[in-house]
Write a structure and sequence with these properties.
about 220 residues; alpha+beta; Jelly Rolls; six-stranded antiparallel β-sheet; four-stranded antiparallel β-sheet; globular; disordered N terminus
C-alpha cells in the first residue's frame, strides 16, 4: 500500500491499492443499488461496512498517522453519478455525532439528523479525528474529485475573512485509483465539483477517533 503523497503533515495523504477491485465491486453491489441517491448515512450499523472499518489495512493507516490504531464511529457513502450530481463548496467538517449535547465553551451549534444529535466541535476535539475516504471507483479529473487546500487543517476557522484567505490559495486535486484511500483531517478545507461525465465516483467515508469519549463526559454516537 504505497503512500503516494506523503503529505499528511499538510492534512491529507493518498494511499493507493488498499482494497482490491473485487472488494470494491462487492461493496458497490451491496451499497449502491439506487444510482439516483447522492449518498447513504449511518452505515456503521451495516455488518459489511463495519467489518471494513475495522479491517487491519485501514487500522494500519490510522496507526501510521496517529501512532496507534483508531476506533471507527461513523460511515457515510457518497455517490456522485450522472443521476446524482452535485458540487460541494469549500468547507471544514466540524460536526460530530454525540450521545448527549455538551454545554461547554467551543462546542456548538447543534442539530439533529435522522434522530442523531450532531454538534460542531472545537479544534481540540477535531484534531483527534481522522477520516479515511475509501474509493470504490477511480477518482478522476472528470468525475468531481476531492479538492483540498494543503495545510489548512490547523484549527477550526470561525472568521469569514480568514476562511477566504485560505480558499484563494492553489488547491490540490486528489486523483485516486479504485481501491485507494485518502486519509484526511476533518479540519482540512475541501470541496468538489460536479461530474463532467457519467463516470461514477463512489466513496465510502469512514471517520475514526482516538477514543469514543471525545471530550470530558462527551461520547460519540455511532453513525
Amino acid at each position: 500500500m504505497p503512500d503516494r503523497s506523503g503529505m499528511y503533515s499538510e492534512g491529507f495523504s493518498i494511499i493507493e491499492g488498499v482494497l482490491t477491485d473485487g472488494e470494491c465491486d462487492a461493496l458497490i453491489d451491496h451499497l449502491c443499488s439506487d444510482a439516483a441517491r447522492a449518498g447513504v448515512r449511518h452505515l456503521m450499523g451495516d455488518p459489511l461496512v463495519a467489518r471494513l472499518a475495522y479491517d487491519e489495512r485501514l487500522a494500519s493507516i490510522t496507526k501510521q498517522i496517529f501512532g496507534r490504531p483508531l476506533t471507527p464511529y461513523k460511515a457515510t457513502l457518497f455517490q456522485k453519478t450522472g443521476k446524482a450530481n452535485w458540487l460541494v463548496s469549500w468547507h471544514q467538517d466540524t460536526a460530530l455525532p454525540v450521545q448527549t449535547l455538551p454545554h461547554l465553551d467551543g462546542w456548538g451549534p447543534a442539530s439533529v439528523k435522522d434522530g442523531i444529535k450532531f454538534v460542531h466541535a472545537p479544534t481540540s476535539a477535531l484534531a483527534k479525528i481522522l477520516a479515511l475516504r475509501v474509493h470504490l471507483d477511480a477518482s478522476t479529473e472528470n468525475n468531481g474529485p476531492l479538492r483540498v487546500i494543503p495545510a489548512s487543517h490547523r484549527k477550526r476557522l470561525l472568521d469569514d475573512a480568514e476562511f477566504r484567505n485560505w480558499t484563494v490559495q492553489e488547491p490540490v486535486e486528489c486523483i485516486v485509483g479504485k481501491g485507494g484511500v485518502i486519509a484526511m483531517s476533518p479540519l482540512l478545507i475541501h470541496a468538489s465539483s460536479k461530474c463532467l461525465t457519467d463516470e461514477p465516483r463512489r466513496v465510502l467515508h469512514i471517520e475514526y477517533a482516538e477514543s469514543l469519549e471525545i471530550g470530558e463526559g462527551i461520547c460519540f454516537a455511532t453513525a
